[in-house]
User: Fold this.
Amino acid sequence: MRGRTAGITAATLLALLLLSSTTAQATPLPVSEVSIDGDVDLNNRVRYAFQTVPESAKYDIYYSDESFNNLTEIVPTASSVAGFPDAWIFVSEDPADDPSIQETLKFFRCWWSLTTIPEDLATDFQIEEDWFEPTFSTGMPVIPPGAISVVCDLPGIVRGQEVYVATVAIGEDGSSAEEGLAVLSAITTAESERPPDPDMTPVYIAIGVIVGGLCLTALVLYFLSPSRRERSGYLFILPAILLLATLTFYPVGYGIYLSFTDESAENYGEGEFVGLDNYELLFSDERDYDGDGDPGFWRTFTFTLIWTFGCVIMHMLLGVLFAMLLESGIIGKVAWRTILLIPWAVPGYISVIMWRGMLNRFGWVNGILTSDIDYLGLDSWAKFSVIFVNIWMGFSFMTMTTSGALAGIPRDMYEAANIDGVGRYHRFRHLTLPQLMPALVPLSLLGMIWTFNLFHVIFLMTGGGPDRFYGEPGVTDILVTFVYDVAFIDGEYGLGAAWSVIIFLMLIVFSTAYLLVTKAGEVDG
Amino acid sequence: MKDNLAVRWWTPVSLRAVVSFGWISLMIALFMCAVSWMRGDDSGLTTAFMVVIANSVIVFILPEDVPARPVPEKFALFLVSGVSMTVLSLSYILHRADSSVGLTLVDYWTAAPSMLVGAAAVIAASRSSRWFMGKASTEEALNGLARSRRHSGAIIQTAKQIVLIHLGIFAILPPLWTVMLSLSPGNSLSMDFSISTATLEHYEKMWGSERFWGWFWNSIIVSVATTIFGLTIAFPAAYGFSRYRFYGRKIGLFMFLIVQMFPGALILVPYFIVMKGLGLLNTYAGLVVAYSVTALPLCVWLMKGFFDTIPRELEEAARVDGCSQMQIFSRIIFPLSLPAVAVTCLFSFLAAWNEYLLALTFLSDTDRYTLPVGLASMVSSAQAGDSYWGDFAAASILISIPVVLLFITFQRYLVDGMVAGAVKG
Assistant:
């Protein structure tokens, strides 16, 4: 990867971006014109155009928070979701040219044309008939060498913020790109033309009604209460109930309502009721961008289940195994316990990023194993890696809880079993396991709820990739991570809410099981 | 009769030891297969697979706790397997030494156990040949049983310790890597760590970095405010649920229970819109309120559970003595429930300190980032390997140390609290 970066520095830089229809103060653009368009109808996306450079084999697109003249000056934006570079396009005659490339960008979309970019591009540029969709090589956009100009929709750019975009053309042989390909730089100071702030009166009214209604209910209950002593309980719990109602139950209800509207970042506050359209869209061919007949719902659904059950089963297995080892009279139990605690104690996001660095193709794991596997870039390996990392992160908690439960099993039962000459397997099967079950069953259900909702592991490891087609979930996307993409990268709040409702329904299954098993619903008297 | 029994039940302790350690070397040999496969090293994979087979023979050939009979064929198998394990793992080492990358630590580690166990199997089998043939005398059997009793504890303990060492390495490898990365010069992923070139430059850079301290203070402000605000709301609620039997109490408690089941990601979209509408995006207040609500159910349940254990009679007595409700709160309930309050505070604090998703969604201004979002942003574009990995590693270590110490100190409470239904951070 270092070699490539060195090649890039010498390669062509051509850049420009406008977030909205405003003036671009572009510094000299030696080789080709760069044009932009502002007000696109895609949410959170910016339409961006550039002229191609002859003899280039690939274009890398980078976002940066600050202006820059070469790649080392790039300050990655927080909105950069896809990694580094943020997007890329291949140039090739044959779309199936480079099958080794697995990583693709599910948010990125582009078109190419044989004409130059029109002068008046800056505003309201629409994709018309002389623009063609690229082909894909394992998910990567591939444009033919003859293409003159390219237009892309760059995802994940926050409105109202200045973002600099660089397109780097890379020659056939990355390192030989210096000849003939000049460096371009461009700076924009783009002011976003934000949509007017929507009318939030409905939200205020709703919150007001909830607060007022609850206070009134509390008041009525207070004065109707038969016992003068017990009724002051209402006053104690009222603040907590108010907070819960306004910031949990109201949003959930609002989310269900949103799932029936076409609310999005673009027509924010003006969403209209569209019935069940969003739910149909989840399964419809309209979202099937890669044309494989599956818009991605069932794929994501299946992987979510594999992820949930795979992780939880392994957590339980390892937890029980290691806890039995810990509790089997070893020397230095406290020290080992402390060491095994570490995966749980290290903040989750740090663990995930550590593993991402280690599993990087040029990272430590390949280094010590002297293998060369792109753990996060190959479909099966990426799936394995995210599950493996989550197993690492979760096994120690299960070990701790199980060893607590094991310590509670009376010793004399084992002594009796020993006298009766019970074998090791039967001792575990008929003695240990039944004693552990009351602790293990609710824990595993709780673990399922957690794992099902676990966002940061997959988001920070792979971002849902690889093989990410525009608008479709990636190979390692689970429902929760894909909702984030739909809502906050694509800006389609209504559709995101529909996904959330589906998740909610599935969660109810787990939760009901949990409540039934633990009898937690039967509050004490 | 007794002598006869001794002969029948006795297995030489050396054989038992070989079987015990054989299990460990079998696991490592399986790993050797996996590594060879990952390297695409086919002949290595074949060798490793043969090691696994030989090793399995040694492990499974002697059933435990079964009377020994004359078993010459097992003797032969034991010997052959032992020899082949040694030879095969040796040839694996030689094969790897021949390869382009040469021998690595992993090769030594994967091959050495099989070699040792194989050699030990050969020695143990040849020394126990009389036992295999069923010719051991009563005296030998009695001595052997005594030796078993003396040594078997130590053997099993050693085997367990070896397993634990592997487990421990598995657990601390990523943190260890981070420490090494943070001490290596350069900001690249492909670090080449050695003691002589170790440098504190990344620590110095992060320590002097305004951005890092900005994020740090944002995290502190948000976490402390969340803890205080959350506690202010949760404390009376828990008290109310614990002490008063009013109509609707059970429904209320049940509500607090189910809310825990749908964490952040689920209500993210509507949350975002409501927060946007209230103008709370990019503010501390927005995060504080959101985190408090997320932590509220757990706090209420934890403290209610504790209040339930404080006898009501204490309060009744105080009331008879003329204490007001406020005085009961401040003089009796609060001091008594201090442990529960502390644990609850710890939970709220840690949950807010480690939270990523909501912070990512609510904050778009780099200066407002909390540590999780800030640190993640340092390497979010670092796939190429030349970004800020060294700095990230140093910052992670700086942040993790206090958190890990907190976890180690309060592990019992945290485990109990988590089981009670916390949301994992």
